[in-house]
Amino acid sequence: MYRSPLLDLPGAAEARDADATVDSAGVAWHYGNPLGEQRLVETTTVVVDRSHRQVIRVDGPDAPGFLNNLLSQKLDDVADGFSASALDLDIQGRILHHTDVTRVGDAFYLDLPASQAPTFVDFLRKMVFWSQVEVTETDLGVLTLLGGDVAVPEEVSAVFVRTVEWPGTARRDVVVERARLDVAVDALLAAGAALAGLMAFTAERVRALEPEKDVDLDHKSIPHEVSAWIGRGDRFGAVHLEKGCYRGQETVARVENLGRSPRLLVMLHLDGSAPEAPAPGSALTFNGRTVGRLGTVVHDCDFGPIALGLVKRSALDSGELMAGEVAVSVDPSSIPEDEGEKAGRAAIDRLRGR
């Protein structure tokens, strides 16, 4: 199992059992001052070790079309430096894998939690057939910069740097050789960055409504449950609505044109006076009726205990929910605006003379 060299730094602590439900094995959850490390995001650039993620390289003459045919993102004609997210769906449109994608020259780099990597790599390799592509598991690591504008020094020797568009604090991912991870971090610290653990990133991820598949979603989850994953306007998201030819596309098109997802991913505020936080995966209830499920739970330096949750649309304005014995409320700012009348539904209504 991978273990980051940064775990040998003074104060470095791995996630406790209660926090380990998120993808955290092998890197520091914090370096001795978890809430203080989060607070630094407001005033400077922090560097977070996310080198436990698996980075996969796909290259070869057919790589753009190969990935375009398999994933929900349009990748057949993207330029060098393009970055976005992408989903691998099953035939029913349910989410199997969520990956970040970056094109560097003629190669594509895809990174995702290590727990998802074996099945994703196996899927990619099984789909090669006669395509001229090569799928390689690399020994690269991701460092994430949050907040501020500290430049990435040449000494970091980054394979690539990408700016991540998400509804949160400014974020850049710096991908380096794992063997040079400590050298890269030293160079970033010398340039003015500060060190923060994965807990700080997790709090920012929750506030940005960015789910981690294994903890925040379930086997029934479809793309429209995560509003920011649907590409609209200048936002790429993880699903391109103007491409086809990928598994699960029919579900995406049907929900986009005719209806709405029955659940939405939202941010939740938890009662901070409870002696223990509820566990991810706990049922969310209203008047004893299950209306959703709890995902990532983390303590935020401003809001206290917060979480992600998949909640039925009908329960979003029901009032106080419960996760076990803990009171939970939906953050209203995390509920996306109504998308208005669906084009397909309007066309059907016109045909019916309504």
UniProtKB/TrEMBL annotation:
Q: Which residue stretches belong to region Disordered?
A: 330-354
Which InterPro entries does this entry report, sorted A to Z? CAF17_C, TrmE/GcvT-like, YgfZ/GCV_T_CS, YgfZ/GcvT
Compositional bias annotation for Basic and acidic residues: 341-354
UniProt keyword annotations, A-Z: Methyltransferase, Transferase, Transit peptide
Q: Which GO terms describe its biological process?
A: iron-sulfur cluster assembly; methylation
> Where in the numbering of this chain does the CAF17 C-terminal domain appear?
267-332
- Going by the entry's taxonomy, the superkingdom of the source organism is recorded as Bacteria
Signal peptide (residue range):
none
The protein's matches in PANTHER family, at most eight in alphabetical order, are given as: TRANSFERASE CAF17, MITOCHONDRIAL-RELATED
> What name goes with this protein?
Aminomethyltransferase
